[in-house]
Amino acid sequence: MKKIILRHLLILIGLAVGSYSPSIDVPTGVIDFYQLYDNPEAHIRVRDRLTTADRIAAHGYPSEHHHVLTEDGYIVGIFRIPYSHKLQNHNEQRPIVLIQHGLTSCSDAWILCGPNDGLPYLLADAGYDVWMGNGRGNTYSRNHTYLSTKHPSFWQFTWHEIGLYDIAAMIDYALARENGKGQEAIHYVGHSQGTTVFFALMSTRPEYNKKIKTAHMFAPVAIMKNMANKLVRSLGPYLGHQTIYAKLFGSQEFLPHNNFLMRLLFNLCEPDFLLRPVCENTVQSLYTGGRVNMTAMPEGLATHPSGCSTDQMLHYIQEQQSGYFRQFDYGTKKNLHIYNSEQPPEYPVELITSDVHLWYSDNDGMAAVEDVEALAERLPKKVMHRMADPLWDHGDFALNHELREYLNEPVIAIMQQYEKEQSAE
């Protein structure tokens, strides 16, 4: 595979250079070499990668990039579609929606399917004020009031802190903006880790439940006892306990951020770039089942993985090994110091009193049906949405080519019904 991709890359570069090679069929004495070779079309340049805001604006929607300070000093980036240019409803109060990505992902994931299928666009067109969050440590959230990303302490966090501090800060920030004034609550959508952080926040800081209108959990991950993912299960005995392997793996950046590499991937996979076929051929060789939105996949390769702490992964592996949805296990000695018990405490999900909609499927290797249902038994207010397609898997919640019909439109309909009932009161 690597040889095939490399061969394609070399051929395309050769074609690019050959296509733009200047003619030399002129008298030697009159050649202006500076002018001849100062042709911008003759250069293969690595362009700066687009941000979420850039991608949104390219489709004609208003877009904003905000930076939010958390209680513990992290600065997280969030993007916003404040209103739809199709509706021109910027002078009206719009219901607020916060959307949160999964592990090693970022806000780009929600818009890859484009304005016809992507949830943020559909929500904006339905009259919502849409915010897309980014957890600490990813592409858009690599800042802190005093810690550098090169300092190990920067990476000493799990998804527990993302929920407790990042999501809380995002909710408060959105409600404090001009459109949020007079509103007391928002709608929330999370995928995978985006659901985990919601459960962590709402159970540990239950006062935030009153700030939620409806919550939609795509592929909810909390209890992981029956997880089918073979990689996680094989790593579990080594990384899911207090071993030397876990200590060596922990508290560092997973796949350290390389700006040049990310820009290179962006340039390979963007629609208008000469080397796009290399990216498309790679995607087609990896995804042949016909379920994935193939237009979105190359953009996915250009923007992912987006970074995280290895402690986030360790926390998940601990969950799978223990069978419990509980806080991070630091080992007996440190647990006693932090939790006043030898074992980390379980999250009291019984305290989650907001309306939680669980969207789950039979073929999800990360969120087993048995685990989702076990979690649901403990939630006071939940609605179960089991996907009818028996092949629907974890990634389908983000990139299935029928995402709009089977997931996004039903979610928006639930939000619209809530807003209708509230306005009638």
Q: What's the total number of strands?
A: 11
Helix content: 25-40%
In round numbers, the mean pLDDT is 85
How many helix segments? 16
User: How far apart lie the N and C ends?
Assistant: 61 Å
Largest sheet: 9 strands, mixed
Question: Which spans have pLDDT < 50 for at least 5 consecutive residues?
Answer: 1-29
What is the overall silhouette? globular
Radius of gyration: 23 Å
Would you list the SSEs in sequence order as H and E?
A: HHHEEEHEEHEHEHHEHHHEHHEHEHH
Structural class: alpha/beta
User: What percentage of the residues does DSSP assign to strands (E)?
Assistant: 5-15%
Pfam families: Abhydro_lipase
Active site: 192 (nucleophile), 364 (charge relay system), 394 (charge relay system)
Protein name: Lipase
Keywords: Glycoprotein, Hydrolase, Lipid degradation, Lipid metabolism, Signal
Which terms would index this structure?
single chain; 425 residues; alpha/beta; nine-stranded mixed β-sheet; two-stranded antiparallel sheet; 11 strands; disordered N terminus
